[in-house]
Amino acid sequence: MPLTPEQRDEIDQQRSNPVQTRRATVPALEEILYEAFPALDHGFVRVIDYMGDDGAVVQAARVSYGRGTKKVSEDAGLIRYLMRHWHSTPFEMCEIKYHVKLPIFVARQWIRHRTANVNEYSARYSILDKEFYIPEPEHLSAQSEINRQGRGDVLQGDEAARVLDLLREDSERAYRGYAEMLNQDDQGAALDPNRSGLARELARMNLSLNYYTQWYWKVDLHNLMHFLRLRADSHAQYEIRVYADIMIDILQRWVPMTSEAFRDYRLGGTHLSATGLAIVKRMLAGEIVVQGDSGLSKREWRELMEQLGRSPDA
Amino acid sequence: MPLTPEQRDEIDQQRSNPVQTRRATVPALEEILYEAFPALDHGFVRVIDYMGDDGAVVQAARVSYGRGTKKVSEDAGLIRYLMRHWHSTPFEMCEIKYHVKLPIFVARQWIRHRTANVNEYSARYSILDKEFYIPEPEHLSAQSEINRQGRGDVLQGDEAARVLDLLREDSERAYRGYAEMLNQDDQGAALDPNRSGLARELARMNLSLNYYTQWYWKVDLHNLMHFLRLRADSHAQYEIRVYADIMIDILQRWVPMTSEAFRDYRLGGTHLSATGLAIVKRMLAGEIVVQGDSGLSKREWRELMEQLGRSPDA
Amino acid sequence: MPLTPEQRDEIDQQRSNPVQTRRATVPALEEILYEAFPALDHGFVRVIDYMGDDGAVVQAARVSYGRGTKKVSEDAGLIRYLMRHWHSTPFEMCEIKYHVKLPIFVARQWIRHRTANVNEYSARYSILDKEFYIPEPEHLSAQSEINRQGRGDVLQGDEAARVLDLLREDSERAYRGYAEMLNQDDQGAALDPNRSGLARELARMNLSLNYYTQWYWKVDLHNLMHFLRLRADSHAQYEIRVYADIMIDILQRWVPMTSEAFRDYRLGGTHLSATGLAIVKRMLAGEIVVQGDSGLSKREWRELMEQLGRSPDA
Amino acid sequence: MPLTPEQRDEIDQQRSNPVQTRRATVPALEEILYEAFPALDHGFVRVIDYMGDDGAVVQAARVSYGRGTKKVSEDAGLIRYLMRHWHSTPFEMCEIKYHVKLPIFVARQWIRHRTANVNEYSARYSILDKEFYIPEPEHLSAQSEINRQGRGDVLQGDEAARVLDLLREDSERAYRGYAEMLNQDDQGAALDPNRSGLARELARMNLSLNYYTQWYWKVDLHNLMHFLRLRADSHAQYEIRVYADIMIDILQRWVPMTSEAFRDYRLGGTHLSATGLAIVKRMLAGEIVVQGDSGLSKREWRELMEQLGRSPDA
């Protein structure tokens, strides 16, 4: 349960008072505005605000005075064209703002995307809640044997149980230390009224990377799609993919034409090198190509065959 | 007259159909949404869209669930605090999008601000209108004798008349060449139906830098204020200041608390070096300081005295 | 002749005094440091400074203490891997700085790449030289009939001659007006010693977009490759491609491994949409696919067949 | 001791082989290139590479062909002018690259500066060393009573001892859990040879925020000074100030003229609001101003008096 009753009240209040605007407005997105979509065990994604819609992309591409064409098919075609030819600036004309609650180790990956605006909850200023991430057993994967940056099979039995115990115990203990250093009891009252406790900016260092933080994150549509392409990818860590997947669903509500083009050209698309393209052309001409005469290393060959949905040994 | 009747119609249509939204909305800005504020002889500034308000700044600074405090005075105090201590991220949470028509030489200064999104009207793709900037006589200044990057007195009589003639004639002639190369007559019809004319992307090079272009320009509130501080400054070129001044008026409608803090801390504020501050302290202690024992060069001394509203020789 | 004798002297002086450094150094790039590579009729590209080499990319990818592996083949393989999987940050660790002289209409396209640092020669402060771009006859293309943003056949005979005359005459005339407004004769002396002339920041607006400007442009290796991919593309305007091609040659000197990977994965590579990929898979499986049952529009089908080097009608 | 003997060897090797270059070179910075300057208990700052010097700033400001003026005093004056008038682009023409080892909670503050390039050591890919930050007793400050984001007095006696014990024990325990989940003993060998251990990308979440990470961080001179101004400020957290102070010393070696101007205008300088400036002018004119008729809130008045080195009650 990521939200307290007080927080729910505040959210309900925001949702309850629609006003009039002349701005481009997206009813499907208005419907879910401010709502918290749960992510992992304590996290969430909420849309706080947005600017623009599919029409704003079209309008910017044409630098027009009004809302652009009336024909939906023309707009969709233009958006597909822009996506296919990597025109990024019209997509930069839309903006979205989220409130996200997420484990710190996920936040550390996320923040590497620099072309966004962020305001994070400050643990120098405030005290963090006791909320930490414990994976579901089915996501408790072993280290991959073949990919140093990947996951292997799911841990079983004793080993899984032991890992969960360790994570829970160490997280609990970390918070006990944090609270004691802050001179706080469970209710947030001072343990010793004559002490002010260690500075918050220092005490926070005792918490582990699975503790939750939260932030406001604002990004334009172009950079959002770049983020989603990388973070919804199968090579991304599961815990950040959960967030990316929620945001992809929201994208579909917000800008359905752009979302369709994004799925086709980015999420489902693939990139071929010059060498890879030459191989495809030879194969299309009926030639049987094998790794040895492909010009690719074994690893590159395997990756190409995977892209084409073929066995590396065929 | 910067707008055609067709363009006015498109704008009126956008303005006429308010819809419902749950987003933060600013009535004073809604009032002027899409309206064209004239700038120079053919240019304008229009607000096309916006995201957020003063409350969104407060909300982001606190990473809160709802709309933040109810007390206006607390919000204004927090915004002043953020401005005073150069906290930029909460202001980045608001965004505004303009449609601007401006001479190319102004556009070239403007674009140097990189932290914004731009879609410019493409003269590779479309034909530019015959609209060029001619200064009002009172802005026809001579080169400054003391500041290599500044303006001196206003030109008078024959000299002024000759400059205006040259600007007008050369601009007219540039467009005649442009149209002829494009194989177009005054009505946009082909001069010679058997020719397709020079490529637009080449023909445009015949136009001079006072021709008007237009773009969509989107920026967050923090970077907007940075832009306005530099471009509304008395050292900025008059022609870009005209645009900055319009945008400062719009800022006041959009985010009045932020606007007040911006005027106090940025537009009207000043910066003292360590040496300058030491001089001020000596003067406040009753000492009479002269340039010779100030540690400043003559130019630096003059600039400091100007900041303090004092004669350099006092 | 883009350089004066004085400028050549200054450049020779920079080239003549090698000193010692412990930094990563690239002899093949040192060889051409400061040299002006001619571009168009009066422009050039000069490398002024650089930081890092192929080894610095490897070193950053590994966050290592020393220079990384000794084996060249491992480094090349890692660089190919980084390029294939769109890892951008290791390439951001190298930086290059150019001095470029280019027509203003080219500079206007170039500056749209915001992730670079620029210092441009100031026509507010200084007087521009009388140097303007006139295309070679073989680049004087007609407007494309099928692509609104492209070039068609080369203009011939009278039409070509007339265009060149117009460009030359109008450019000459624009400078005459500029100089007269500035109160300057051909030697840079005052026409009328009692006048200071129009402010430079105003007079410059009389010049046309084919006049040359110059700037220092500094960019990291990742963003440089992004720029080169877009600007060396066949859809880019010829006049900017000239610059991109020179810079691609310089890239090969600077970071040969990265350059090879860039040519294979970016310049020569191609992108398939999900729909396009599905079609390729069907074709590889022996199926004959036609546009009608491809899921692609005619235009998209034509572009895909082009990518695969096949006739659209096959 | 932040470095192993192997790491020292690698560093020594880099330092031992100077080569020839024609680039701008700074002997005082070459002297310390690659050296590790210790920070906190296990961290360090090393300069890995640099581009440009004070001359490059001057050269860029003038877009010159050679090295600019020969007179040192002119260059210093120009650099002071650029700094005074907030001209940022010439300073962007210099670049520096560091290798930094730092606690994760410091890295989280640092990374908020987005205008830099970063490659961080990957705990998805590699195993982190057992190195965590424990403050020196004199930096173990209590929470400030008056500033929610600050430090108060240093903790004493039992309370201090208890905090240090908690930090050490919890950090030790976190690493034990981490290693056990990874199935690793103290020597890095498998505890159970039949298990591959939890995926590294998951196990890392058990570590606390005082664990050390490391990265390559590259930034231009303008953005570096912006970072240093904020992070060397007395309001910055002590643990990041340690790094900023080291980097300020390095700045002095690298670009001494820029460094002097930076100290005068930024580090030692101060900013007055319009209201504050009006008060200073009144005081300079001999008037006695008190908070009540100043137009400032009590907090703002106190901050202004502090800037001017005066008692708030005077």
Automatic annotation (TrEMBL), chains A, B, C, D:
<feature type="binding site">
    <location>
        <begin position="112"/>
        <end position="114"/>
    </location>
    <ligand>
        <name>FAD</name>
    </ligand>
</feature>
<feature type="binding site">
    <location>
        <position position="89"/>
    </location>
    <ligand>
        <name>FAD</name>
    </ligand>
</feature>
<keyword id="KW-0489">Methyltransferase</keyword>
<dbReference type="InterPro" id="IPR003669">
    <property type="entry name" value="Thymidylate_synthase_ThyX"/>
</dbReference>
<feature type="binding site">
    <location>
        <position position="120"/>
    </location>
    <ligand>
        <name>FAD</name>
    </ligand>
</feature>
<dbReference type="GO" id="GO:0070402">
    <property type="term" value="F:NADPH binding"/>
</dbReference>
<keyword id="KW-0274">FAD</keyword>
<comment type="subunit">
    <text>Homotetramer.</text>
</comment>
<keyword id="KW-0545">Nucleotide biosynthesis</keyword>
<dbReference type="GO" id="GO:0006231">
    <property type="term" value="P:dTMP biosynthetic process"/>
</dbReference>
<feature type="binding site">
    <location>
        <position position="231"/>
    </location>
    <ligand>
        <name>dUMP</name>
    </ligand>
</feature>
<comment type="pathway">
    <text>Pyrimidine metabolism; dTTP biosynthesis.</text>
</comment>
<feature type="binding site">
    <location>
        <begin position="109"/>
        <end position="112"/>
    </location>
    <ligand>
        <name>dUMP</name>
    </ligand>
</feature>
<dbReference type="Pfam" id="PF02511">
    <property type="entry name" value="Thy1"/>
</dbReference>
<comment type="function">
    <text>Catalyzes the reductive methylation of 2'-deoxyuridine-5'-monophosphate (dUMP) to 2'-deoxythymidine-5'-monophosphate (dTMP) while utilizing 5,10-methylenetetrahydrofolate (mTHF) as the methyl donor, and NADPH and FADH(2) as the reductant.</text>
</comment>
<feature type="binding site" description="in other chain">
    <location>
        <position position="204"/>
    </location>
    <ligand>
        <name>dUMP</name>
    </ligand>
</feature>
<protein>
    <recommendedName>
        <fullName>Flavin-dependent thymidylate synthase</fullName>
        <ecNumber>2.1.1.148</ecNumber>
    </recommendedName>
</protein>
<feature type="compositionally biased region" description="Basic and acidic residues">
    <location>
        <begin position="1"/>
        <end position="13"/>
    </location>
</feature>
<dbReference type="GO" id="GO:0006235">
    <property type="term" value="P:dTTP biosynthetic process"/>
</dbReference>
<keyword id="KW-0521">NADP</keyword>
<feature type="region of interest" description="Disordered">
    <location>
        <begin position="1"/>
        <end position="22"/>
    </location>
</feature>
<feature type="binding site">
    <location>
        <begin position="220"/>
        <end position="222"/>
    </location>
    <ligand>
        <name>FAD</name>
    </ligand>
</feature>
<dbReference type="GO" id="GO:0004799">
    <property type="term" value="F:thymidylate synthase activity"/>
</dbReference>
<dbReference type="InterPro" id="IPR036098">
    <property type="entry name" value="Thymidylate_synthase_ThyX_sf"/>
</dbReference>
<comment type="similarity">
    <text>Belongs to the thymidylate synthase ThyX family.</text>
</comment>
<dbReference type="GO" id="GO:0050660">
    <property type="term" value="F:flavin adenine dinucleotide binding"/>
</dbReference>
<keyword id="KW-0285">Flavoprotein</keyword>
<dbReference type="GO" id="GO:0032259">
    <property type="term" value="P:methylation"/>
</dbReference>
<keyword id="KW-0808">Transferase</keyword>
<feature type="binding site">
    <location>
        <position position="226"/>
    </location>
    <ligand>
        <name>FAD</name>
    </ligand>
</feature>
<feature type="active site" description="Involved in ionization of N3 of dUMP, leading to its activation">
    <location>
        <position position="231"/>
    </location>
</feature>
<dbReference type="GO" id="GO:0050797">
    <property type="term" value="F:thymidylate synthase (FAD) activity"/>
</dbReference>
<feature type="binding site" description="in other chain">
    <location>
        <begin position="120"/>
        <end position="124"/>
    </location>
    <ligand>
        <name>dUMP</name>
    </ligand>
</feature>
